[in-house]
Every structure is written in structure tokens, then in C-alpha cells.
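Archive entry. Fields below.
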Amino acid sequence: MALRIALAQINPTVGDLDGNRRMIEASLAEARPFRPDLIAFPELALSGYPPEDLLHHPPFIRDVEETLGRIAADHPGDRILLGAPIRGDDGLYNAAVLLQGGRAAHAYRKCTLPNYGVFDEKRHFRAGRLCTVYRLGRWRIAVNICEDIWAPCGVPAVQAAAGADVMLNISSSPFHAGKGREREELIRYRAWQHGVCLVYLNLVGGQDELVFDGESLVFAPDGELLARGLRFETDLLILDVDRPRSPAADPSQAPAPPPDGFVQPRHEGIEEIEDELRLEEIDLGPQDTNPPPPLPRRPPQHRIETQEAEIYGALCLGTRDYVRKNGFTDVVIGLSGGIDSALTAVIACDALGAASVHGLTMPGPYTSSTSLAGARELAGNLGISLASIPIDEALAAYRAMLDSTLREKRLGITDENLQARIRGNLLMAHSNALGWLVLTTGNKSEFAVGYCTLYGDMAGGFAVIKDVPKGLVYRLARWRNGRDGGAGPIPGDTLERPPSAELRPDQEDSDTLPPYPVLDRILEARIEREEPIERLVGAGCDPALIRKIYGWIDGNEYKRRQAPPGIKITPRAFGRDRRYPITNRYRGS
Amino acid sequence: MALRIALAQINPTVGDLDGNRRMIEASLAEARPFRPDLIAFPELALSGYPPEDLLHHPPFIRDVEETLGRIAADHPGDRILLGAPIRGDDGLYNAAVLLQGGRAAHAYRKCTLPNYGVFDEKRHFRAGRLCTVYRLGRWRIAVNICEDIWAPCGVPAVQAAAGADVMLNISSSPFHAGKGREREELIRYRAWQHGVCLVYLNLVGGQDELVFDGESLVFAPDGELLARGLRFETDLLILDVDRPRSPAADPSQAPAPPPDGFVQPRHEGIEEIEDELRLEEIDLGPQDTNPPPPLPRRPPQHRIETQEAEIYGALCLGTRDYVRKNGFTDVVIGLSGGIDSALTAVIACDALGAASVHGLTMPGPYTSSTSLAGARELAGNLGISLASIPIDEALAAYRAMLDSTLREKRLGITDENLQARIRGNLLMAHSNALGWLVLTTGNKSEFAVGYCTLYGDMAGGFAVIKDVPKGLVYRLARWRNGRDGGAGPIPGDTLERPPSAELRPDQEDSDTLPPYPVLDRILEARIEREEPIERLVGAGCDPALIRKIYGWIDGNEYKRRQAPPGIKITPRAFGRDRRYPITNRYRGS
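PREDICTED_STRUCTURE:
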């Protein structure tokens, strides 16, 4: 008889044990009529992922355990695999807890703990050593967690050697552009490599800087896609697995090269722990042999193919969840008439609905009428409210107040920053008075080189496009404008005119910065690939320019350290992902 | 013949390879006339500690290796043990590199990698497996690095079992209050436990949030203190070790209980790695038998005994190094007449000299004449410049500007925050115009519960007393006032009057917050000890109050994430030390 598995691709909130429990119970209720043999939830679904140092608060762990016990006791008829932190004799484990017969019957403890990039799992967890295979009737079900499946051998190899038919991996795998395809190639390859039906369940939702993009996947050992969950949305997949282990991939045979169409995954940075692993086989008893009701037919979802669509989806989900999970309903955005604030506003509207988004224009002495018109046109196109407060009165006051101490030094960059800071203050005043979250509008290129004002345009609770380089800002804006047919919400003039901060007469970004395509190329080399200057010089870039930009990046860490969080969409985002010191005199290359 | 060891307790800067090399060479030149058998430098002294993700930039590692080679080649007559990151076949190691005969002759690779609190060493390094014992003539010298010596057995036990006479530990051990005594008890205990002369070398200096406090130590196996380096200052210790291994502590014998006067160290959180370790013995050739010149007599330094003196020393060093290593000469501080800004200004003067410190008073509508007088008296006592800029003009402008959108909602907390933000803007204008670093003045109690204004009083480059709870602010102020005899710089009225933000008429902190002694007690329980509410209730605190304060702590992570860095002085500081999520609905207990 086929093995019926339900995959609950849910969107929990870190720390919200009661809310997460209710969400889990709703999935149980939804799946129950189809009588699955097993219903699985993502990695650390009960606590939310990543709970960070909340894991060090013993009452939280106690409450997790109590909630686990309650879910088990209240649902004795379900067989549940639930990601949760659990205590062992010697510390905390990242576990997949099996609830059966009204109690926590067993737990698989994650063996491969990522401790790079955004991950700090060795800070929080001890590593398991036992590779679990559950026997359920004639089925042998291997269970592992996220990073376990990324390792070239490790846990899955031990489980496959023990004759697993089905391998279930519960993950909380954060998004960056291209990660969807990478993950799909990995899962498909591992299904073939280990000769198993590979059932991959991913979390969905935003948590501070991270977006978990869902898109759970099921692959047969021959590489056939059996199921694909929704991307950037919650989902409940129920499927019948009826393919036994592939004899072709018998692990006692020498490994064959992958057939055409399989992409061998890279595994740089993945830890190898083969020597320490042992097999553990657990008998769950017989499978329920009453035939379950038939499943509704549901073809696999289509993959999101374009990079822009994928990134845009992540930005919308990350924004919606940061706003809602932190208890806000409305947001306010300073609309300058420029491309960054326009894209931010469009994302906010798609994420929250136009009624929850409020625009504020704050024209100053150097604001062009084109900019103001662009902000108004955008607000009109989006159907959001727009208020306007000129900054001149406060600017005149500051100029007068600073005259006694600074004299002519109050001009130049000081005066430019003051304009940005007055705008920051006005936005924050609306936040304080009306309870709106301020969305900041800076892009990754600006944050990288410090072309932004601390407490000015950097002020706000969430920086939606913080990890989006300027060139990609334009590509996303054009893609979004073309998405639904028609002209799209962002005015043509906003897309076409040269970018400017408008903080002094006739200012353009290109007065200070190299053209954005050149800048973005150098930034990507330094930030995402840690390339030496020589390699860029070899590729035709000006060495003095590269050196200057590398120096700007290092020299502006102090600003970024005070920036609001924003959504990671590249392989290396500022924040918890890229951790450079502020005090750092390295300017070598 | 005795073994002569030189300990260079230096203060390098992260990333400054040329500067650090020159500092190392200056120590070599200073020690050379005394012809030490070995001169040692602290953990990662060449790169600075902690270099964080700069370690992931391959050109930096290449430059480290080139600098290592240059130091070796330029000093073929010296035997040098130098902390540096080095590449192995399979990744990066935290190493003690032995330079001898003009080349890098060997390297010990740190085996015990801390990955908790402020430490992320498993993010950056692989763990070594070989426990090195060098033979130099008749001496057997064990070398290990920082965390290795904190483990109850581990590397030192393997080295002691191999007959080491002398154990040299090079460290970069960050300060918190009480750490000096804890470290001294540990080193003394380990000397007895392993029957060796234990030579402990610690880094000195500030690096972003961390202060390394120096105070290198040498203990004989019987617990006698042979040397103590300066605390919070650079030092060069040269000493002759002439005590062979203690036969009483023969590791083949059953371990004896520690004699009276030895404190058994705690080792919670220290990883146990015994199973994986192996011994490695390296012959360095004969000892130079020409008698070296006699050493000048130098009795061990006294320990700093009072907690206030110790913390104050850390705050001064941390402030001086953050300012200077980031290329600033001068700082500006908003002086309110309150205790926090007063203490910050006094620390700045002690750290940088009064000529480099600039005060700014920014009276508003609710500033009392007492406050203004206090600020003036403080500036006079310290001999720092003081300018005054009333904020009323800007406040009037904002109030008028916000009337159209906010009406009566522009009052209350919105208006209070505006006053703080105008002050933040004025300080930042002086920073922009004059190149002065703004020192912020918030204390740990405020940051913990969010009793501070983002972009207002939180604005600035460095938050000197960020990790100092309010009660300790008072104790430090009183201690400093009494330090040199006389009345001290902080006016009596500043010390005596009830704290107030002065943002509305007759405001006092106690309108919003519980009395600081109660607040600080609850904060310490939650932040430093992660205590459940029940334990505090059992100790007589009001459950509703604790719950409210626990909620404030969790609910204000978003503010702290945008706070400037400040100096860690407690076992658990906000920042890289305590990493809670912003989005976090846990409010259980």
C-alpha cells in the first residue's frame, strides 16, 4: 500500500508558541479527512526559525516542551513529525519530534549544523550522531533536517545504506536569488544518488532579515517531479508515495556518474561528519491498511522562472511578515520622486494593500518640480494617501541655530545631511503619532558605499530594498511595471531621469559615484565573491576606482551597523550574513 | 639553565598589518638586549582580534602570510611565537606560529574553538587536533591558545602528560567585570593541576564592543605568582623560568583534590574534545647556553581590587581605542546636566584629554536651570569647551510643520521624541562639520527597556556606557569623584537630583520606570541570568511588574539593533553578545 504523507508548509512566528500551535492544529484538521500516515512540519516550526538567543532562555524551552506535549496529547490519532528545539542530557538539539499515540515517541536530532553565512547553529545546538530510519509497515522512512541533505554523504548516505525507501527532509531554508533552482537541482540529485523518493518540506515566511520561500518538493528516484508546493505562500501538500527504493542506486554498488539532466551539487562550506554517524532503526508498528479516501488531483505548481519575479515575491513576503508579525497594520514612506522610494511603495502596496500605505513628500530647496510630480503621479497610480510637508522652515531654523558654532562650516555636507535628517524626523513623527512603521528606501549600492545619511534617509523600521543593488532596482521596477499589462504604477520619468539625492543644486549621483553598472559590478565582486583587486583590474576596471570603492565599503561599516534590518535577497547581505568589524584598517586589496 | 621568556602584551589594530608588524618589531627590539629564548605575542596579534569576516577575504589572508614571512626573514636571530590566522589544506586555523631561523618553522593550531557569547570561532576556523610540545634543550614547552586552557582537560592535559615543564598560553580574552579575578584563579589552578609553570599572555586594547584587558600572568606549579603584567596598558614582561615540572602533579597518579587556596574553575559551555586530540613533539634544537644579561628587578603589579576601578579602566581604554583606531581625534557630547552625560564626559576626558572633548548643551522648553548650571559646572571642572544651542527655534518649526498632518497627535510622545531628535541632529551637524565623533550617553537600563529615542539621544558613533546599568553609573560617578581626593568633577547636584529626561513639564524617570534599583535587579535577572519570572517572584518582586519589564526588553530589540556600538563590561552585553530576534512574540516568562 502507498505511503500517504502530508506536508504542512506553514508560516509560524518566532516565539509565538500558542499561535504556532493553533496553526499546526489547523493543518492537522485540514489533513485528517485524507488520513495521512504521517504529517510533517518544517524545521523548528513550533518555535519559529531562527529563534537565535531566545533558545538560551530556559522558560522558553520549557514552554516549547509543554506545547509539544499538549499537541501530542490532544491529537493521539495523528502521526506528526514536528520541528522543535529539545533538551538532551548534554544540551539543546534541533530536532524532528515524532508525536504518535498521544506522546513524543521519538526525536531525530540534526547532525549537520550550519555555522556560516546567516547560520549560527553551533552557537545554539549540539550535533546529533544517530541517523534515524523509521519502519512503518513495509516502508522504511528516513528523516533528516535541512543541512543534513546538503552534505555530499553524511546522514542521507547512512540512511540510504540501511534501505530507506522514502527520505523526508524538513527544512527552514532561507531565500536568495537563484536558491530555488539550486535547491531543486540538489533535491533531484539526492533522490537519484540515494535511490529514494525524496520528500522535501520547506518553511515559508519572513523573519527579520530572512525570507523562507516554501516551494516544498517531492522527487522520485528517477528524477521525476512528483509534487511542488506554492512559493512564498503557505500550502498543504498531501501525496501518496508508492515507489519503492530504486535498485539501480544500491549503495553497495560503486557509484555511477549522474545521468544527463542531473546537476551535481556543490558542497563548499558543508561540514563532513561521516566518521561520527551511526544508524538508528525505530519500529513505528504496522501501517493502517484501511484504504484512505482518494486525493484530489493537483498537478505540481509551475516554477517561478524569472529572477525578477522570484526576488519581487521575496520582497513582498518579507515586508508583509515583518510588518504584520511585529504588530503593525500601516506603513509610511517618504516619496522623493526617485526610483528607490517608488519601488519600495509599490512593494508595500502589493504586500499590504494600498489602504495601509501612506506616502509623504517633503520637498526642500533643491527638490525639482519633476520629482514632486513623480511622487504625486506614483501615489495616484497606487491609490495611496499622500501628504506633503515642505522642510524649509525647519531647515531655516537649523541654519540659524548652527551659525553661532559652525559659521560657514554648516554648509556643504552638513547642510545636505540636515535636509535628510529633517525628513527622517518628520517620518518618525508620523510613526510616533499614528503608529505607522517607517519603511526606508535605501538600496544595497548606497548602503555599501555609505551614500546615505545616518538618521536621515536611513531612518526607519525596515529597509525593504536594502539588499537590492541599484541596477536590480531598475530591473525590478521595469518588471513590475510590465507585470500586469498596461503602463504600470511607476512613472516613466522616475525610471528615465538620472538618479539624484537633490540635496544641493543640480546634484546627480554620478557627481560622487561611478555609473551604477560599474559600481554594482565592483560591489558584487567585493561583497559576494571577496575578490582581490587584481582580478577586477584584469577584467578591465580602473585600479584606483576599485581601491576607492573597496575603501568606501570597509569605511562605512559603522553606518550599516546602525541601519534598519532589510530582506536578504543576494548570497551575501549586510547584517547577520556579512559580519565585518567597524574598526578595521585593512585597505590592502 | 633557566628558560627566558618575553611576553609582548601589545595593542594591535584589526586589519592594520603594517602597523601591527611595526609594533611587533618594536617589541622584538626592546626585548633583544635581554636575549630571551622565546618572545611571544597574543592570539591573532598580527591580524588583530577578532577580525570577523575579514578572515573570509582571501587577499587579507595572503597579506597576513606575506607579513609573517617578512617578520621571520627580517629577524632570523629571534625565536618568536606569533598569533596569526593561517591557511591549512582544508581551511583556516587560529594559530600560534613559531618563527625561527628566518622562517615560519611550525604552527600550533587552536583546538578548542569558542562559539558562544561574543565568540564566533567555528564560523571562521577549523579546529586543530595536535597538542604541541616543543623541546628546547632540556625544556619542554607546551603551547596553546586561549580557550584551550579553559577546558577542564583537553589540550593542556595531553601536553602535561607528555612532560611539559612550561605551558605558554597566548590569549585574546575579552573583559567583563570580575573576569580578572576569574582568569587569575583559573591560571593558578591550571598551573597546579598540570604541574607546570603557566605563562599566560593576554592581548590589550579596544576593538569595537570588546576590551582586552592585558594583565598577563605567570604562576608556578605551587601557586606562587611569578609575574603580572599591567592592566589596560601595553607591557613587555621578561622573566626567567627555572622551576621544572612539579612531581606532585604527575598525571599518571590519581588526581588529588586542590589544596586550600585554589579555586576550581567552572567550565560550563566549554567544549570537550578529548577524544580527538593527539600529541605532537617538535625539537627546536639546543638552548643558547651563553648566560644572558641579568634582568632588571620588577615585582609583580598589584591587582586592581575594586570593581569600579576595573570597569572604569575598561571604559577609558575602550573609548580611547575606538576613537583613535577609527581615525578620530576629537569627540562631542551632549551635556544635559544629568548623570549619564556627566560620566560619559569624564570618561572621555580621562581617555582622550580635555582638549579633545567638546560639550554641547541644547536647552529646550523643559530644561531646568539646575540642569544647565550642572552642565556648565561639569565643563568648567573638566576644562572642556562648552557651546550652547537652544532647540526652541527648530522645535517651533517642527510643531508648525506637523500641524497639518498630525494636529493634536503631534503632542505627547511625538513632541518628546522630536526634542531628542533635534538634539541628535545638532550633535551630528557638529560631527559632519568638524569631524568630531559623537559619543552617546545612554546607559544599559535605558537601552534594555527602550527608554531612549531612536535617532535622538541614541544618535552617535559610540555609546560609552551602553552596558552600564543605571545603578552602576552612579557608583562609577561617585568612585571617580573620590578617586583623586577633592570634590571630583561631577557636580553634587547632578549626583543627587532624581533622573529626568526633561522632555515635558516636571517629568521624572520614575513616572515611567520603577525605581532603578528594582529595575536593574530585574534586568540583570533577565539579561545576564535568563531567569524565569517565578524565581524573581519568589525573591519578592511584583509579578505584573516583572512581566511588563520582560516585555519591554523583548519589545525594544528593534531599537537596540540600530544603536551605536558600546563597551561590553557585563557578562552579557547587547550587541554581538546577546543576539535576540526583533520579530519575537514570546512573552511567556
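CURATOR_NOTE: Chain A touches chain B through 89 residues (CB under 8 Å).
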